[in-house]
């Protein structure tokens, strides 16, 4: 039998260490570079992840073009080129890498990239554009003011406006930018603000998310209609802030901590009263399920929220298992091309959206588990847009061949990224809308 020292991979389930971001050594650039070189050398000898994000092709090209053709021949100043292409999708950790903990080589590529991003931010090596794009609360509130929203949307829909945005802010002129709504989801659903102590067998508090609140309020509305149809009491919390994922991807961990403090106390009030929480954007759910618990392992409130927040389709499928989900569907959907987004896949809950949609009669799902390359802000940035489109190209190719009646992704931004690659300008239909259509609501 091979010893652990010669074993290629691990048979144990992947585990993760807490993010030691409050340790002064976390921000030591010399220690960071030593760890980057160690992990990059392991990646160079493996190369399984070359088909994922652009971090790995960038790394391998740097190695292959160096004098030694090994990691020691790569200028450490170029390490940042690898870091900048990582958008913390976590797929390398959970689907490809054979050396993750508990393997003795202890490779956690995404969280190593997070450490590098945090050091860059700590040094002030971050663009103004990236600070603005990650301030989803502030931008949404400003752009959502009635008159301003019309101006912003009009400017973003013209070639002149987009060229100006690219020149002044570095947002690619061809990137998909969502519209802003002055009639936000929270305003539309204000009637859903039920008292915390409401008595009901099943009750969930809706974490609306910045994106659904300001950009696509109809998704939150569809969710409410579907949950109400299934006799699930649903309410919006009296206040919420950004989940912190955009700031995490920027490396601004102090901002993540502030947002955590603002959200967790509100969430706990509802949880203590017997409510569960759902959020209709996978990245937001992942933030509370994984990243915050790893950043704050000793925070009991964070750990409680982790146990009580659900992806909406995860929650609905649990109701199906309990024989409480209605299957009184009035419409079939035909053939559906379903894109499973990265931040949903890495929640380790299985494909619950697929499982729920499969309950609809005369409906056939074609599932594709592959990154769309969007990552919230990565695809809109001038320097990364073309690469993001390249990452998405295989998804678009599969969709074009599918001849589906609908195509859908739990991540609305991924859905629009796929849309932008379709010659017929088709639009993605969110899975919650598909469910609402099937019910005939």
Structural overview:
This protein is an alpha/beta fold and 441 residues long. The chain folds into 4 domains: 24-123, no CATH class; 128-169, no CATH class; 185-310, Rossmann fold (3-Layer(aba) Sandwich), CATH 3.40.50; 327-439, 3-Layer(aba) Sandwich (Rossmann fold). The chain is built from 22 helices and 7 strands. It has helices at 29-46, 55-64, 79-84, 91-96, 109-123, 128-134, 136-143, 146-156, 159-169, 185-188, 210-214, 217-229, 245-250, 253-272, 282-295, 300-308, 312-321, 342-345, 352-357, 385-402, 412-419, 431-439; strands at 203-206, 233-236, 276-278, 309-310, 334-339, 363-368, 406-409. Strands 2-1-3-4 form a 4-stranded parallel sheet, with helices on both faces. A 3-stranded parallel sheet has the order 6-5-7.
Q: How helical, in percent, are the residues?
A: 40-55%
**Count of the separate structural domains:** 4
What fraction of the residues are assigned to beta strands by DSSP? Answer: 5-15%
Spatial arrangement of strands, main beta sheet: 2-1-3-4
Task: Give, in order, the helices and strands.
Answer: HHHHHHHHHHEHHEHHEHHEHEHHEHEHH
Q: Give the overall pLDDT as a whole number.
A: 89
Q: What is the CA-CA span between the terminal residues?
A: 60 Å
Largest sheet descriptor: 4 strands, parallel
Tertiary shape? globular
Strand elements, count: 7
């Amino acid at each position: 039998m091979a010893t652990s020292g010669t074993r290629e991979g691990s048979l144990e389930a992947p585990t993760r260490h807490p993010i030691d971001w409050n340790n002064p050594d976390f921000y030591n650039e010399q220690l960071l570079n030593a760890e980057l070189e160690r992990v990059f050398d392991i990646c160079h000898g493996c190369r399984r992840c070359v088909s994922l994000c652009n971090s790995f092709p960038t790394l391998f090209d740097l190695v292959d073009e160096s004098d030694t053709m090994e990691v020691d021949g790569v200028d450490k100043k170029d390490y940042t080129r690898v870091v900048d292409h990582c958008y913390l999708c976590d797929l390398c950790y959970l689907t490809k890498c054979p050396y993750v903990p508990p393997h003795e080589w202890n490779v956690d590529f995404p969280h190593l990239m997070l450490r590098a991003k945090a050091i860059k931010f700590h040094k002030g090596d971050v663009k103004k554009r990236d600070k603005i794009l990650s301030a989803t609360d502030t931008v949404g509130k400003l752009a959502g003011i009635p008159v301003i929203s019309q101006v912003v949307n009009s400017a973003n829909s013209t070639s002149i406006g987009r060229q100006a945005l690219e020149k002044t802010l570095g947002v690619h002129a061809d990137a998909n930018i969502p519209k802003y709504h002055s009639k936000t989801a929270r305003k539309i659903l204000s009637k859903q603000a039920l008292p915390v102590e409401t008595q009901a067998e099943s009750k969930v508090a809706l974490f609306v998310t910045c994106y659904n609140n300001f950009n696509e309020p109809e998704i939150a509305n569809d969710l409410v209609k579907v949950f109400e149809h299934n006799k699930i009491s649903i309410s919006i919390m009296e206040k919420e802030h950004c989940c912190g994922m955009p700031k995490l991807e920027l490396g601004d961990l102090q901002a993540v901590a502030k947002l955590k403090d603002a959200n967790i106390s509100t969430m706990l009030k509802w949880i203590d009263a017997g409510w569960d929480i759902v959020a209709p954007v996978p990245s937001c759910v992942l933030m509370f399920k994984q990243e915050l618990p790893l950043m704050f392992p000793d925070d009991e409130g964070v750990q409680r929220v982790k146990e009580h927040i659900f992806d909406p389709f995860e929650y609905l499928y649990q109701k199906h298992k309990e024989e409480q989900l209605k299957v009184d569907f009035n419409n079939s959907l035909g053939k559906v091309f379903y894109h499973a987004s990265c931040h949903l896949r890495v929640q380790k809950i299985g494909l619950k959206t697929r499982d729920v949609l499969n309950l609809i009669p005369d409906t056939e799902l074609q599932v594709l588990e592959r990154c769309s390359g969007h990552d919230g802000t990565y695809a809109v940035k001038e320097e990364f847009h073309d690469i993001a489109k390249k990452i998405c190209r295989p998804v678009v190719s599969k969709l074009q061949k599918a001849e589906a009646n609908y195509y859908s992704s739990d991540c609305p931004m991924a859905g629009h990224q796929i849309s932008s690659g379709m010659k017929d300008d088709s639009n993605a239909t969110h899975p919650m809308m598909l469910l609402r259509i099937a019910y005939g609501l």
